[in-house]
Design goal:
It contains 5 helices and 11 strands. It is of the alpha+beta class. The strands form 2 sheets. Strands 1, 2, 3, 4, 5, 8 and 9 form a 7-stranded mixed beta sheet that branches. A hairpin with a 7-residue loop joins strand 10 and strand 11. The longest helix has 14 residues. The two termini are about 20 Å apart.
Length: about 200
């Protein structure tokens, strides 16, 4: 859903992938470099569905009413193929958007309020990897203008597959930063500003 990712891969619309429960890790975990063929890291956000009534939301603001938590999230996608081979939308869809793993931070409770809606639209992340050069930065506005717009898009894309969002589903909203190779032996740290009212949050 991230505009920078779409531009990089030459696609004009989002592509839906699925992360399963066993692909999710928690902050502080160590992942094997053999987990995938061409592992990358990127700053992302995850929200949790509070009610299947989200299927009836018609606006981004209404969607917030049916979410109960947001997580800072480092996605670890796998691009699968050699870097010399250009990725196209059909290839990305065929490899499940490269879904391989992700690191969940601590859940932050969401409130159905104008303040929280504004907050979600202004999140900043700085992603650092100890062996991969300077940090990368991004903002939640990269996600279709506002993260709750992505929630509605995912809801509709899931419905197009004959399924529906349900309570407890976790939605990975997309790339807030550019991708960076996951270098063996490195430590990846994402610092989120403006997400938790208590202060910066780190994964």
């Amino acid at each position: 859903t991230g505009t920078a990712a779409q531009k990089r891969f030459g696609i004009k619309e989002p592509v839906l992938g699925v992360l399963t429960r066993h692909m999710l890790y928690t902050s502080g975990d160590t992942l094997s470099p053999h987990l995938g063929a061409r592992l990358m890291v990127e700053g992302d956000l995850v929200v949790r569905v509070a009610s299947d009534r989200i299927c009836r939301a018609t606006t981004a603001r209404e969607a917030l009413a049916h979410l109960d938590a947001v997580y800072p999230f480092i996605e670890v996608p796998d691009l699968f193929i050699d870097a010399s081979t250009p990725l196209s939308a059909p290839m990305i869809a065929a490899c499940n958007t490269g879904a391989r793993a992700g690191i969940l931070g601590t859940a932050i409770p969401l409130e159905n309020s104008a303040e929280w809606f504004e907050r979600l639209g202004k999140v900043h992340v700085a992603l650092e990897a100890s062996r991969s050069g300077p940090s990368m930065e991004g903002v939640s506005a990269q996600l279709m203008g506002h993260p709750c717009n992505v929630v509605l898009w995912i809801r509709d894309a899931v419905a197009a597959r004959g399924e529906r969002l349900r309570q407890g589903h976790l939605l990975s909203l997309g790339s807030m930063t550019a991708m960076r190779p996951a270098v063996p032996g490195s430590t990846v740290r994402a610092t989120y500003s403006g997400l938790d009212p208590a202060g910066d949050t780190v994964v």
